[in-house]
Amino acid sequence: xxxxxxxxxxxxxxxxxxxxxxxxxxxxxxxxxxxxxxxxxxxxxxxxxxxxxxxxxxxxxxxxxxxxxxxxxxxxxxxxxxxxxxxxxxxxxxxxxxxxxxxxxxxxxxxxxxxxxxxxxxxxxxxxxxxxxxxxxxxxxxxxxxxxxxxxxxxxxxxxxxxxxxxxxxxxxxxxxxxxxxxxxxxxxxxxxxxxxxxxxxxxxxxxxxxxxxxxxxxxxxxxxxxxxxxxxxxxxxxxxxxxxxxxxxxxxxxxxxxxxxxxxxxxxxxxxxxxxxxxxxxxxxxxxxxxxxxxxxxxxxxxxxxxxxxxxxxxxxxxxxxxxxxxxxxxxxxxxxxxxxxxxxxxxxxxxxxxxxxxxxxxxxxxxxxxxxxxxxxxxxxxxxxxxxxxxxxxxxxxxxxxxxxxxxxxxxxxxxxxxxxxxxxxxxxxxxxxxxxxxxxxxxxxxxxxxxxxxxxxxxxxxxxxxxxxxxxxxxxxxxxxxxxxxxxxxxxxxxxxxxxxxxxxxxxxxxxxxxxxxxxxxxxxxxxxxxxxxxxxxxxxxxxxxxxxxxxxxxxxxxxxxxxxxxxxxxxxxxxxxxxxxxxxxxxxxxxxxxxxxxxxxxxxxxxxxxxxxxxxxxxxxxxxxxxxxxxxxxxxxxxxxxxxxxxxxxxxxxxxxxxxxxxxxxxxxxxxxxxxxxxxxxxxxxxxxxxxxxxxxxxxxxxxxxxxxxxxxxxxxxxxxxxxxxxxxxxxxxxxxxxxxxxxxxxxxxxxxxxxxxxxxxxxxxxxxxxxxxxxxxxxxxxxxxxxxxxxxxxxxxxxxxxxxxxxxxxxxxxxxxxxxxxxxxxxxxxxxxxxxxxxxxxxxxxxxxxxxxxxxxxxxxxxxxxxxxxxxxxxxxx
Length: 883
Ligand code: 7MF
Ligand code: ZN
Known about the structure:
The protein is about 40% helix and about 20% strand.
C-alpha cells in the first residue's frame, strides 16, 4: 500500500497561475543515460493573480537538479529554494519584471519505462508531454494556461542522432568537436509546455508539399526508421487530404512553413499533436497493401487528420485546465469523424462510431467511473483521457451541429477561432461563441457538460385516424451516477421521420406549425413531452433518433414485423441498419434465455427472411451492405443484459450465425465468389467494399462444418495479396475448428516476423479467439520471444485483446482470466503506470456479472490495490472500481 492516499485535484479550486512564463530557451545535450537540460525562462508575476507575493513553485519529477541562476547572476544558494519530490520552490523572486530564471538539470531517458517525458524507443530519443510530462524534462509551470514561445537547441552525437527535431522552424545548425552537431529550432507561436516535443535519432524522411488556400507552400515531412520508408505514402496523402478538408470546411489554414510527423514504435497511445512536430504510434502511420488492412488504412487517415485538426482546435486555441480536455478532444474527434465520413462512407462511419460509443462509452457511463465530459475532480489526469471525454464529447459537439445546422455551426466556430486565438479557454467559452454568433440561448444545453450518465428516452405513439394525427410521447430519464444522485432534464435533439405503409415518405408537420418537411428535429427539453404530427392520411411507421441524433438509449416497443419494415424502407441509413440490429438483437436475446433454460434453440423465420431480403437487393455501398449482414457483437449484447452471461451470449450468437449460414448458404457463396478478386494495392471504395462483403460471407460460411468451404479460407490465406484478405482468412481459421490452423499461424509468423505491426495482429488474433485452448495459448504467448512488456502495442495486442476482446475466455468461471490480468497489471504498475491503469477497465464492470464472478473480479481488484508502491494511475482506477 502507498504511504498516503494520493491527492485529488478539483475544478472548483482553479485559480490563475501566480507567474507567467513568456519565453523559454531550452538547451539539450543528448545522451541515453544522462541528458543535460538547461532551461532559460523569462517570467513575470501574473497581474491577474490575487497573491502578488507568492513564491515561485515549479513542478518537476525524476529530475537531478544541477543549479539555478537568477537574472544571469550568481548561482542560487541552497537556502534560496526548497526541492521536494515533485516540486521546486523559489523564494525571494526578483522585484524586477520580467526576470530570467535559468535551471540546469539532468535526466535519464534509458530508465524511463513509463514513456512520459524524454524516453528511448529503439535507440531513438523522443518526448511525450501531454498531459503533465514536461515536468519530467525540467522544472516548469506545467499547466496549459501558461503559454510561452519556445526556442530549442539540441546537441548530440552525429552518428547516433543524425536527425535532431523540435517544434517550429529550424533557424540554425552547426558542427562541434568529437563528432557532434547541433540544431536550433524556434516556434513563433505561444504554446503550453504539453505541446513541446523533441526527437533525435537515425531516421529517414519522406517529403512532399502542400499549397494552402492563400498560396503558401508548406513542406511536409514524415520521419520513420529506415526499414519503414516504403510504408509512408498513405500517411502523406492523408495529411494532404486533411489539410485541404480543414480549409474547405472550417476555413482553417496551416500556420508554420513546416509540418513534421515522426513514427515511433514505443508509444503509450495513438498520437500527439505537438506544434509542428506530431509524434505518432507507428500503428497510425505505417501502411503498405501487404502489411495493413483496409481498416488500418482508414484509421491512419483518421488519426493523421485528428492530430492535424488539433493545430486549430487544441494548439492555436488550447485548454485553460485539464478539466476542459473535452474542449479540444470532443471538438477534434467530431471534426475527424466528419472528415472520415466525407472521405469514405458517411453511413458506415456513423454506424461504426455509434457502435463504439454504445459498447464502450455507455458502459463507462453506467459504471463506477462515470464522469461528465467536463469532470469535476481527478487524481491522475492521464486516467481522464476516456471514451467519455472523447466520444461523448464529440457527440455533444455533434448535437450543437444538429441543433444549429452546418451554416450556423460554422459561424459559431469562426467566432470561437476569432475570439480566442492564442488563448487557453474553457468549454463555456466554446458554447458562448456558438450562442453569440447565432443569437441563440443554450442554457439548458450546457447540462450536457456537467451531467454524467446516459439518458434513457422512452417513446410511445398514438395514431388518431379521425383527426389524422400521430402523437409521439417522449420522456427522458437519466440514472444516477457516482456523486450525482439527481439529474435534470437535458436539451435533446431527436430527429424523426415518418414512413407510410407503402414505403413512401409521410410529411412531418407539427401541430401549430406551417412547415412540412421529410424529417424534423424535435427539441426534447422537458422530462416528458408530447409532439403531435398532423395531416397523416394513414398510420405511418416512425423512425426515431435518425442518425443517432443524441447519445441516449431508446426504449420503444416495436414488433419484429415493424422492424423488418423499417429495415427495408427507412430512408435514414443509420436507422435502417439499426432496425436490422434491433430485429436480430431481439431474436438473440430470446435465444440467450433459451440457452440459460436449456430450451431447444430455434431462429424465428422472420429473421432469416429479413436477411434473405437484404441479400437479394443490389447495394451500391458494399461496406454498408456488410454492416447490414453483421450480427451485434458479444460486447454489445452483453450491454443489453441485466446480468451478463458470457457463455449464453456466445452460444446464442454462434447459433444464429450457424443457422443463417445454413439457411442462406447459396446466396452467401455467390456473393463471396462475385466479389473475390486477386487484387492488391486498390483502395478505392469499390475494392474496399468488395473485400468487406466477401470476408463477411467467408465468416458465415466457415461456421459450417464443410471441408470445401474451409478450403476457401485456406486458399484465400495462401493467395492473398493484401493484408485485409490474409487476416480475414486467418481469423476464420483461428476462430473456427480448421485443419490448417496451426500451420497457417506458423507460416504467418514466419512471413511477417520482421514487421512489428503485423506481429501485433498475430498476437491479438490468437488472444481474441473463442477456441477452447485460448487461455493456454495466451499463457504460452507471454513467454514467446517476441513478447515484451516494454512495448505498449504488444501489451495491447496480447493482454488487451484477451481481456477486452475475448469475453468468453476472459470471464472463465474459474477466474483464471482475472488472475492472469491482475498479475500483468501488478507487473506493469511500476514499469508503465499509464498502460497498467488502462488494462484495469476489464475488471471495472464487475457489478454486471453473476455473484461468483463478482467475487473473483473484486478479489483481483483488491489484490491490485495491495500492490507495493502502487502508482496514482492504478490506485485511482482500482479504488474507484471497488467503491
Ligand atoms: C484519434 O488526443 C482520436 C483520439 C492525446 C492522446 C490523441 O491527439 C490525442 C492526444 C489518447 C487517446 C486517444 C487519442 C489521443 C490520445 C486519439 C487519437 C486519434 N492529444 Br490518451
Ligand atoms: Zn486529440
